[in-house]
Amino acid sequence: MRGVGHAKWAACAAAAVLAATACGGGGGGGDAGAVLSSSWGDPQNPLEPANTNEVQGGKVLDMIFRGLKKYDPKTGEAKDMLAEKIETSDSQNFTVTVKDGWTFSNGEKVTAQSFVDAWNYGAGLKNNQRNAYFFAYIDGYDKVHPESGEQSADTLSGLKVTGPLTFTVKLSQKFSTFPDTLGYPAFAPLPRAFFDDHDAWLKKPIGNGPYMVDNYTRGSRMSLRKWEQYPGPDKAQNGGVDLKVYTDNNTAYTDLMAGNLDLVDDVPAAQLKNVKSDLGDRYINTPAGIIQTLAFPFYDNDWSKPGSEKVRKGLSMAIDRKQITDTIFQQTRTPATDWTSPVLGEDGGYKAGLCGEACEYKPDEAKQLIKDGGGLPGGQVKITYNADTGSHKQWVDAVCNSINNALDNDRACVGNPVGTFADFRNQITDRKMSGPFRAGWQMDYPLIQNFLQPLYYTNASSNDGKWSNEKFDDLVDRANAETDTAKAIGLFQQAEEVLRDEMGAIPLWYQNGSAGYSDRLSNVELNPFSVPVYNEIKVG
Amino acid sequence: MPDQQQPYEPERAVAGTGMGGQMDLGASEAITLEKAPESPDGTGPQDRPRSLWSDAWHDLRRNPVFIISALVILFLIVISVWPSLIASGSPLKCDLAKAQEGSQAGHPFGFNGQGCDVYTRTVHGARTSVAVGVLATLGVAVLGSVLGGLAGFFGGTGDAILSRITDVFFAIPVVLGGLVLLSVITSNTVWPVIGFIVLLGWPQISRIARGSVITAKQNDYVQAARALGASNSRLLLRHIAPNAVAPVIVVATIALGTYISLEATLSFLGVGLKPPSVSWGIDISAAAPYVRNAPHALLWPSGALAVTVLAFIMLGDAVRDALDPKLR
What we know:
Chain B: It is found in: Cell membrane. Chain B: Belongs to the binding-protein-dependent transport system permease family. Chain B: It is a multi-pass membrane protein. The complex is a heterodimer. Chain A is α+β, with helices and mostly antiparallel strands. Helices cover 31% and strands 20% of the residues of chain A. By secondary structure, chain B is an all-alpha fold. Chain B has a single domain (53-83, 112-323), classed as MetI-like fold (Orthogonal Bundle), CATH 1.10.3720.10. Chain B has helices at residues 14-17, 25-30, 52-61, 64-81, 118-154, 156-170, 174-182, 191-217, 220-227, 232-268, 280-287, 295-323. Chain B is elongated. The chains are: A alpha+beta, B mainly alpha. Chain A binds chain B through residues 250, 268, 270-271, 273-274, 320, 323-324, 327-328, 387, 393-394, 397-398, 401-402, 404-405, 410-411, 414-415, 417, 419, and chain B through 90, 92-97, 99, 113-116, 183, 270, 274-276, 286, 288-290, 292-293.
């Protein structure tokens, strides 16, 4: 790239005449006031912490909120953030002490009450929050969020403010890893402004994180700016972030190459072959707690009737995962052999090969299984996916071709794209799916519980397919109550085996986080959730 | 020179206006029909005056542009009816192991990003394009000329209303209209696309038909027939239609090419045909992200689309030249 090098040298020479600026790439402290731009997609819901269970909204919550715990950007370990200490003697009653000196960006102090109010709001049935389920283990949840009928209490009886900065949590059963879940945004504190003028808050959310929302135009961009008075240790190293909405990650990548965008956290599959030559060491590819699966609409009789588990297992065995991850994803994905993620580690509950032959490519057996199970409902499966992120079109087409080849039927499987992620999520929550659909899961916290319970427990928050199995639920309950971590993990894995036998969802592959960035940026990293650690990025 | 009176020259760029473009009313009315008084190429004496149609055919046979485009179109029609004549495989048979590979024995065009044979898909894609082009043009021509012809013949309030309706349709941007209307349709056949093109395409033909009927009905022989007591239907069918239909044919033939490219555009944008249907627009859209590594997967369907559209537009040009010698 002779020409490019020469041009850069010339630009540096010109700059040197004007001012003695740093020229020579990288290094340096960067300009703390400079703003970077990053690719993004519209969130499905307004940014209420307890109502955001998808990645794009979560990205923003991560920037504007800090909870009791924060997951270490490198290891994923839950570390105290606003929590001074969380004490328990029996894994059921917890005493939380909040650190002094934290405020919201409007100046209001963060107190124990800020947490308790937020959690009561999140749990309340009338507030219709998608993550209400996260509060289900707190005593009194059945009154605040009954299975049917109106709520008979506004506050969780298990939450008691005992001082300006202390509160107690009483759970309805033992839940040994409860403190580790508290880094999830659903548990973020909320200021009075959230309750006093809710509409204004939704327009411009106020939080306690290193960034503040400056403005948001749906379908276009959200501007976040550094909160100068942020009291926490992880201050933003840049002046702010402009999240730009893209409906096609290829466009975002082209914009990055053209210098119109600084950071792409979703490198399109079609460019993976070129990304190293395009970006060199400005491309990062790190393991992340993400698994892609195909979920099924169990509210549809076609997929819940007896025998349909054979069809699902057959479909799973008709997918040549290795070929797809090698060719389409250039090995930035790894074929999945269980329902968790390798980032958990063996000790954390990841168990390679748990899925067994049900996740291996065996076209002949696949064909037989589907036949035994009564064939594909309607003779054809449609895999629904969103077309705007993650290069889903490429892999859905490849999965369909793989199924078609295995079944020797050109039209056994077709992709069914939905334009945007938000639309796609809406169709799922409205139960409009009629066949398998894409269900990626980015972990909320690095525990095996998070890969199973929110996704497959009866009526759990992200149980999109509404799969329900008593045995599974029972094993999960027992695992949560278990105070011995190793035993708890064993129970979770037993639950996973139930999931496997029923093929409640087809595991596809474990996803790496991949990102590319412009030469303006340095110190760019992805956390184990594959979200860029925005506050650490240096510009210039 | 701006102040100089320019002799009116009907634009030759009618082909480029497409459906969305404003068809200049003047241009359509300028395509009047007059029998060429003598053989245009002056070859030999004529025993009896040839009709417009035989005269046009006489011209066309000698026009290399017509011959080439007609051969291309004939070939396209044949392969869209029997694609297996030259491509025996299934366009939906894909082997990911061969993704993005180039040309090789038995697979002259190579493979696309999903490992499907580009040659087979390109051949099978012709059917969609030809079907959409021909059927949409037929629909547009029939609907447009009937409505426009009646409006032009009877005039009055109906004519005024129709003219305003065509104005309204001209104001609808084609691609935007397609995105809005077709995105709500889930059917995966060519019919919604054809229906959409007819819906937005008829006003253009309607204006031309109206203009040429108005011109034709003022001719002496029409007045004479009317004086002799001919009914309206006889006037229209026997005297006016045969003499007013030529401009409709010219514009419709040229528009056919633009309809094919419109189908590809809509399929490219994901609102026309959807996989597993095979269409050049779908293939172009799917190949676009891979253009750096597998340009052949983009170029072959694009080339096929370009040649097809060009062939129909050239045919339309040749037909216009033959039917309207004044333009030469």
